Amino acid sequence: MDTKSKIEKLRALDREFRYLNKAIGVLQWDQETYLPESGVEERSEQLALLEGIAHEKQVDPQVAQLLNDLGSSSDNPQGDPKLDPLEQDYLRVLRRNYDKAVKLPVDFVSDAARAAGLSQAAWVKARQDNDFSVFLPHLSKMIDFARRRAAYWGYEKNPYDGLLDSFEPEMGTDAISAVFGPLGDRLSSLLQKIAARPRPDSSFLDRDFDTSTQAAFSREIMGKLGFDFGRGRVDVSAHPFSTTLGSHDVRITTRYLGRQVQSGIFSTIHELGHAFYELDLNPALGLTSLAEGASMGIHESQSRLWENVIGRSRPFWDYLYPSLVSHFPDHLKGISCETFYRAVNLAEPSFIRVEADEVSYSLHIIVRFQLERDLFQGSLRAEDLGQAWKDKMKQYLGIVPETDAQGVLQDIHWSMGAFGYFPSYALGNLYGLQFWAKMQEDLPKVQTLIGEGNFSPIRSWLRDHIAVHGARLPPQELLKSLTGQELSAEPFLSYIESKYSELYGL
Amino acid sequence: MDTKSKIEKLRALDREFRYLNKAIGVLQWDQETYLPESGVEERSEQLALLEGIAHEKQVDPQVAQLLNDLGSSSDNPQGDPKLDPLEQDYLRVLRRNYDKAVKLPVDFVSDAARAAGLSQAAWVKARQDNDFSVFLPHLSKMIDFARRRAAYWGYEKNPYDGLLDSFEPEMGTDAISAVFGPLGDRLSSLLQKIAARPRPDSSFLDRDFDTSTQAAFSREIMGKLGFDFGRGRVDVSAHPFSTTLGSHDVRITTRYLGRQVQSGIFSTIHELGHAFYELDLNPALGLTSLAEGASMGIHESQSRLWENVIGRSRPFWDYLYPSLVSHFPDHLKGISCETFYRAVNLAEPSFIRVEADEVSYSLHIIVRFQLERDLFQGSLRAEDLGQAWKDKMKQYLGIVPETDAQGVLQDIHWSMGAFGYFPSYALGNLYGLQFWAKMQEDLPKVQTLIGEGNFSPIRSWLRDHIAVHGARLPPQELLKSLTGQELSAEPFLSYIESKYSELYGL
Q: Which residues pair with A242 in a beta bridge?
């Protein structure tokens, strides 16, 4: 076989692996949206089997043989230097994925998938009933699986480093601590200054908003922002998420609270940001492992940028508010756009991460990061997580949730075994504002565009500078090549301090 | 390995095969209900891959080895006579499935699955646009796949025999012709007598009925008939179907026309009949290949029994009509239950099979059976199907559809390659009334039960006499052991002639 045929063969094997992963995605999406309650147990078995088969595809000895033949090794993942750059990037990504996957026994992968299915179902019930004890045995299992996963992968100092690396390559515990430390201090200090100022009125948000009208408005926003419903959908689930089930089938979910109309709106825009990234990946990357986001942090940079920097901006609501009023004329009678804008940007400590404002959001992440770090360093036990949660909330946000449903049970991530994911959200805030600063050089009138509802130049810029690369560039390299900078909290902090100084007259 | 362990091992392999099939089912269900338009092509690839993997599981050499070790061969499928009866039945079913599957090359299975996905999408479009030419190339491919499938399986006289056998074991072209001949004659003659009588008023059905109110009423019917929404769902698709995605996850789809409220009602009850059969399979059959319906004909006996014998009966509407009126008070103002009952039992030639009355329904099936038979005998070409359809409709129903959408394009079956399926519907009518006659011996007050909305004795009887056996008994054996009779059209014809003599005063 010549080089070209070898690469083609690799691509064909990779495509099969990815088709299986998409099938798994369909089953998971269904589980979160439409699966009847009693179907959960067999669904877990179905998923466990598929995960096992997908894993076997990924570690097919043919893959190793082809990678080796093409000069790719763990030390020289990109292979033969005579290959063209796209092919070298492809080999690098495949080698990294293969090296990680081959270390995990197939039974381990199946067992973990089966346990995750049951664990998620237990979490849903535990959160509903505010009963941590229902979830604890599952949580302990998920921690144990994560620990073993990290051990299979190997790590330098802390199993947590191994877990972090799988979501954000080359970002270990120490690197994240170094960024999160000063970030936490500046945000805490800003939050305190805000607390000393008068609280904007937001009482008009605390009313019953019909959820089907909310859903109609969300679909309208999606359309206005440019979502093509021929290439995706929106549904409702307990925990909003986005999932890519095909390069032309990217789905988001959201949730509508009976009160607090802004919750569903910002969930929708957040997930839409993820969806745009996936929908706008360069088709030239093919249906291969290059057609993925660069990392979870980069993914979150897109979602949080759309949700916050765009979606919580004044020009965005100048544009959209009349339409919201037309959906809820009675609720918003006499409420000016400026009043609404200030209400949805109200900053104050609160319990639920996904409902948090831009100032306190990253503090929620720092709480979770520290808890995860302590769990995997062994200084914190699963059964003590509920109390540790309360202590950290007190320390960083100054408030203590009364119930576990408002505390340790609020997020889906741990129930799925996704330890090490949370830091991506705060990293996303930082990457996002670094990208945004760069975008403003190219699109100096971006605020005007937003005010006119003309989002396509923004989406095109993000596509041409970020999505175009898919997984070709590791996150730090993407950041460096696009902005000329290393990871920095400065652009984010400067944005947030300026926005909130104006809002609260600091 | 001892005998017990060998059977356990077979069961474990079988479960994996079935989990894969359920995963395939989820992807297919999603394709019919929620898949975005542009996602169809990759979905076909995903399905093709999964079908290939499932097929490989089914023909795993371990299965053959274990079957052989347990004394099962093609000539002695049930294996060692010292095995207990349940185990013998299990081996017989597995051997039949294995023998059929092993004859099909894995590439053939994948290719056929991929083509079926694209073909279904083309059919949807062709039907929408009333353009047979869009569908024809796909139809030709599906016919070719079916022909090759029959050739792989082998057949005595006609490839069509092989196809029929996969839906209804041991019912070949000749056996079906022998039953359908007199059935067609008696029904045609009944239809002619009816045509000479005054037509009942049904104009009040030809109004706009809000589809979300229809959906709410359908859910209410499902609840009243005893459907447990914790073990299933109802959704909307272009063509109603039921699918089993787990032993506690049985889903139906239906469709609501803007006019003709009865259409969605009877589709729902029909699919519900399928769902009850699947939900009520004996749990002792385990998650194995015994936990299936006995055949498609037996399956249709359940759905058509619920839809027609129960759902189109006078006591059923005595019970349910007030509730329908409360959903549509304006539409049904001044319409008595008797008038409604007569309108939904109106018999006359019409174009669409799924909307057909009980008298003409089987004639639609006879048309399709003859077209399929001629196609596979080689006396009819795919491109001539549209015209042949019109000719047969003229011959059996005396009417000719003006468009292909109302003719050859109306059914999904051929687009999926399911040639040989249609006869099951008419066989289901016959089996159903044979079962019903037997049930009336055990439940002489069945009409009273229906009138009281007390359906659980009926469902229990069907469960204890039919669903309990799953696939343990082949259809003819099930029929014989339960009713003491061979297949006969007599109970059905006597039911239909008596019902319609009363309705039309013949």
A: A252
DSSP helix/strand/coil, B59: coil
H-assigned helices in A70-131: 85-102, 106-129
- Residue from B16, B34, B227 whose CB has the most chain A CBs within 10 Å, to mutate: B34
Is there a contact between B36 and A235 if contact means CB atoms under 8 Å apart?
Answer: no
Output the pTM of the full model. Answer: 0.94
Interface contact B248-A30, CB threshold 8 A = no
B51 and B109 in contact (C-beta within 8 Å)?
yes
Task: Give the nearest chain B residue to A229 (CA atoms).
Answer: B36
The burial class, CB within 10 Å (0-12 / 13-18 / 19+), for B37 is: middle
Residues in chain B: 506
Identify the band that residue A377 occupies on the pLDDT scale cut at 50, 70 and 90. very high
Print burial letters for B301-326: b (CB count within 10 Å at least 16), e (below 16).
bbbbbbbbbbbbbbbbbbbbbeebbe
Instruction: Quickly list H helices, A443-474.
Output: 446-451, 456-465
- The residue of chain B with its CA nearest to that of A22 is B46
As a whole number of angstroms, the distance between CA B113 and CA B119 comes to: 10
Q: How far is A505 from chain B (nearest CA, A)?
A: 47
Tens digit of pLDDT for each residue in B407-451? 999 999 999 999 999 999 999 999 999 999 999 999 999 999 999
Q: Which helix (H) or strand (E) holds B249?
A: strand B249-254
Q: For tokens 């940028």, name the residue.
A: A305
Residue A410 to residue A408: CA distance in whole angstroms: 6
**By C-alpha distance, which of B319, B313, B304, B306 is closest to B342?**
B313
Bridge partners of A231, per DSSP, are none
Angle between helices B456-465 and B423-442 (to 10 degrees): 110
Structure tokens at B118: 């694209």
Alpha-carbon torsion angle A306, A310, A312, A313, nearest 10: 180
Active site residues of A: 271
Q: Quick: pLDDT tens for A71-101.
A: 999 999 999 999 999 999 999 999 999 999 9
